[in-house]
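Researcher: Here's my situation. A collaborator sent me these components and asked whether they could plausibly form a single complex. I don't have experimental data yet, so a predicted model of the whole assembly would be a useful starting point for our discussion.
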Amino acid sequence: MCTELKTKRMTTMAMLTAVAMILSYVEAMLPSIGIPGVKMGIANIAVVFALYRLGWREAVAVSLVRVVLMALLFTGVGPMLYSLAGAALSLVLMGLMKKSGIFSPVGVSVAGGVGHNAGQVLLAMWMLETQEIIYYLPALAISGVISGVLIGLAGGLLISRMKNVSGY
Amino acid sequence: MNMDKSMKIRKSDVVLIAVCLLLALLAVLAMFLKRENGARVGVYVDGELTAVYPLDTDTTVTLTAANGSFNTLVIEDGRADVTDAGCPDKLCVNMHSIAYAGETITCLPNKTVIKIEGGAPEGVDVY
């Protein structure tokens, strides 16, 4: 790959990471609906965009850098482990779903949403040595499906409309 | 502007969503049908059982976590609830009160899990 393209790619990744961080920040300011673990995850619009426009490795980079930076800036290392576990499972599932070629961004991001919540539940079960925590999973999975659909719809719109603008 | 065709929602997406929701709802239903009334409230810190309280006696206790923080556990009318906590996110305070065996209230920052235990009396080997 020539240097100019490489630089453009890197800059786009940096911008998407910044966008993801802003989205996390905006989401944190919105009132919570009061159920632990239930949120939209609007930062993942940037991750879905990176997945389709740049590739899986780039999406992994954007997502993980966002999680680490947000944790260092705001939440601390403890919650970061849970975010990382969620992000990791979500990225693996989204990568596989996209590779299968039979899903639109909506299906891919639904898998991502459910993966996010499942990753956190699995880590909590392991860290707290309490299997009963899995009882939270069905409710969190429903929440993951709903946010996944919304993120997928927004991401899909963005991906097709940004084509002419960004060159990606 | 035309929407890129590959970005449009497909039948496979709908099937995936339906399957996920169905499985989750079945799991919720199974948990609802299987539930049994609890008898005791167990407090686990870092995976270790540190205290047990009977569910039928109203009481308020302050649980001290390993990191120096606290959770206030209130047992009232056969339900256990966390009403205050020293952790920053207060997710455990926002959780609903619990009464059925296997239900938990979890405080991740304090590594504290409050769990309702089943009907068999304490110390009796049921297996």
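Model: Some features of this prediction you could bring to your collaborator: The two ends of chain A are 15 Å apart (CA to CA). Residues 3-29 of chain A form the longest helix (27 residues).
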